[in-house]
Amino acid sequence: HLYPDKTKLIRSQNQGAGSARNKGMDAAQGKYLLFLDADDYFDEKLAERLYLSCEQNQSQLSVCKARGFFSEDGPFEDLWYAFREDFMPQTDTFNYKEYADYIFTMFLGWAWDKMFLHSFVVEQKLRFQELRSSNDLYFVFMALVSADKISLVRESLVNYRMSNANSLHNTREKSWDCFYIANTALKKALVEKGVYETVKKAYLNWSADYIYSQLRSLPAAPALEKSYALLKQSGLKEIGILEENKEYYYFKDGYRFCQFISKHTYQEYVIYRSVRSSMAKVRRAFRKLLNKQYE
């Protein structure tokens, strides 16, 4: 160990990231909690910046910006959608009630770009779901609506690896329903906490966009068909997306996609998806031809 008096290695049978994080929390003795993924890499000032932000502002959690990369030599892509400055205040701190319509859409449900006050996590009884994928969104989003104060660190301090073919994100067909289990568990907890009506617009917009993202990125295999059937038969109703009209949604694509699911068969969706993919390939080929011809 680099710091044997301050670090502890815990070995356990692989039961997923949620279980590992919970074990780490149970063993942790520090004032703050930080959850990092092994396939990413981090600015050496990450812990310091997040820590100082919490300490100076007396916040229960702090959040920083992140970049994505395919190779450690770059180029790097600004993950603006994980830290949406158009949805958040210009100040360094805020409370979720001040931006209730955007609290789940200004950030993503990742844990590794956030630091949490340990005593706050214990007090709120926050735990990671022990799911194969989507296991951190419940923990993160419930923390956001439980914190009295959230700090913003407007620096890119995390570098997220986007090219790991074996990552949980890129192998979600093996656990196709985790996105739905996590989503509905979150809604249930928000209702029980008595804050659902306050954050309903944020929850429904996030849900619509999350469903759109999840199904678009699943391969056309049994997992996609099962996901589509689940949403069409009962999922969209349980989540509540179709209760509101299109004006309620600022993530229009997600809402339109959910409307499509409610009105069309899976076979029609596969055809639609195939046509869109072909059109995209044609556009890319045409753009490449133009660039070559007029370079």
In short:
By secondary structure, the protein is of the alpha+beta class. The protein has helices at 17-27, 46-57, 118-123, 137-144, 178-193, 196-217, 222-239, 252-263, 266-293, and strands at residues 32-34, 41-42, 61-69, 76-78, 93-94, 114-117, 150-161. It contains nine helices and seven strands; from the N terminus they run αββαββββααβααααα.
Secondary structure topology:
Blueprint: H1 17-27, E1 32-34, E2 41-42, H2 46-57, E3 61-69, E4 76-78, E5 93-94, E6 114-117, H3 118-123, H4 137-144, E7 150-161, H5 178-193, H6 196-217, H7 222-239, H8 252-263, H9 266-293
Parallel strand pairs: 3-7
Antiparallel strand pairs: 1-6, 2-7, 3-4, 3-6, 5-7
Helix pairs in contact: 4-5, 5-6, 6-8, 7-8
What does this structure look like?
The protein contains 9 helices and 7 strands; from the N terminus they run αββαββββααβααααα. It is an alpha+beta fold. Strands 1, 2, 3, 4, 5, 6 and 7 form a 7-stranded mixed β-sheet that branches. A hairpin with a 6-residue loop joins β3 and β4. α5 runs antiparallel to α6 (196-217), α6 (196-217) packs across α8 and α7 crosses α8. The mean pLDDT is 90.
